[in-house]
Amino acid sequence: LCKSLKEQIDLVNRQIQTFSFFDQHQKSTKDLSKESAEFLWFQLFNYVIDRLPRNQQAKQQMIQICKDYYHGNTKEIELIHQFEQNYLSKDALLWYSKQSFIYKLVNKALRTKDIDLLYMFRFFIEDLSKNLQHEHEKILLSNENTLNVYRGVKLDKEEFNKLKENQEKLISTNGYLLTSRRRSLALSFALKSTERINVVSVLFHIQCDIKQTDKNITFADIRQFSAYPEEEEVLFDLNACFQMESMQENESVHIIKMNLSNEGQKITKDYIELTQKETEEISVSIIFGRLLCDLGEYDKSQKYFQYLFNSSQNEDRSWIEFNIG
Q1: Which one, 10, 43, 87, 261, has least CB within 10 Å?
Q2: Residue 169: which region, alpha, beta or left (left: phi > 0; alpha: psi -120 to 50)?
Q3: CA-to-CA distance for 45 and 18, rounded, in angstroms?
Q4: Which residues pair with 233 in a beta bridge?
Q5: Is residue 121 part of a domain?
Q6: What are phi and psi of 301, to 5 degrees?
Q7: For residues 151 and 235, what is the distance between their CA atoms, to the nearest angstrom?
Q8: Distance between CA 207 and CA 274 in Å, rounded?
């Protein structure tokens, strides 16, 4: 019973999926809808993460948060101790692929835009992005022109309906996107029995034109790092976005075909340039915090600017003080 329950929990953790959307037909990036602002927030996060202060203290803060969160969980605490003693920056993909404490907390923080957690995990998220960039180079140097990957999930009906209603818009996942080269495996995940109610079986088919994709959009084959190498996993970084091509519905599974898109990069670049033009060249780090305000996340915005203020080497101090108010 305990094993079965753990398998169910692990499956749910792997299948939780939320989305952001961007309406490409809106007149400008200046007056954003809330959903478009959320889409941009995840695009900008990749720009910001490697600009945040990184030191040994950042690592220790993260480890302490993990210990506090998993207090009493012997298995996870043991893994946290191993991480504390042995972790190297080049091992970020290996640790993420274990789907243990760090995988769960990073994805939880991203889904909920938890500024406290994201700030505490900044050094690991930066390492993970750099690991992905390194592995992405191998795909670029390969003879592969087109990559087809799949993801099978049980989507909450609410999330599924959002996808149906926003088929014409750009789509991004609120976090890393883990996929498989194996269609049959992804389909089995989509069709797996579950005790969750009000869910829809969905198979995503994602096509990537490798040679035409913007070099800043990273995805990598991670089977050599994975706890499940037979699943032939491909992981997409936080700034990946997609254009839906088709949605086929039948009784057992809904098949959604999407193409990896460069549009998210263009929209983000335009938004940064427009904002900097209007505000005397402020940095992306400041734009990111102000975007939280546009989302109505005032408390999170204040926390974020307070973290920046406490970072003594930050060159935007006057702008930070202005936004703290």
Answers
A1: 10
A2: beta
A3: 16
A4: 180
A5: yes
A6: -60, -45
A7: 11
A8: 31
CA distance from start to end of the chain:
54
Predicted confidence at residue 173, as pLDDT, reads: 86
Could you give the CA distance from residue 291 to residue 300 in angstroms, rounded to a whole number?
Answer: 11
Q: How far, in Å, CA of 306 to CA of 290, rounded?
A: 13
Q: Which of 243, 266, 289 is the last residue of a domain?
A: 266
Task: Let me know if residue 64 belongs to a domain.
Answer: yes
pLDDT tens-digit readout, 88-108 = 999 999 999 988 899 999 999
How large is the greatest C-alpha to C-alpha distance in the chain, in angstroms?
61
* Single-letter amino acid code for the residue at 74: T
pTM, two decimal places: 0.88
Q: Which residue is listed with tokens 């086929």?
A: 248
How many of the other CB atoms lie within 10 Å of CB of 16?
Answer: 17
Instruction: Please name the helix (run of DSSP H) or strand (run of DSSP E) that holds residue 258, with its range, or none.
Output: strand 254-261
Supply the pLDDT for residue 13.
44
* Count: domains in the chain: 2
Structure tokens at 50: 């490697």
What is the Cα–Cα distance from 320 to 306, expressed in whole angstroms?
8
DSSP secondary-structure letter at 210? G
Displacement of CA 147 from its chain's centroid (Å):
20
Place of tokens 């274990």: 98
Residue 272 lies in a domain: no
Same domain for 255 and 284?
A: no
Range of the domain at 284: 279-324
Token digits of residue 94: 């290996």
Residues in the chain predicted with pLDDT less than 50, given as ranges, are: 1-15, 27
Bridge partners, residue 152, by sequence? 203
CATH number of the domain where residue 225 is located: 3.90.176.10
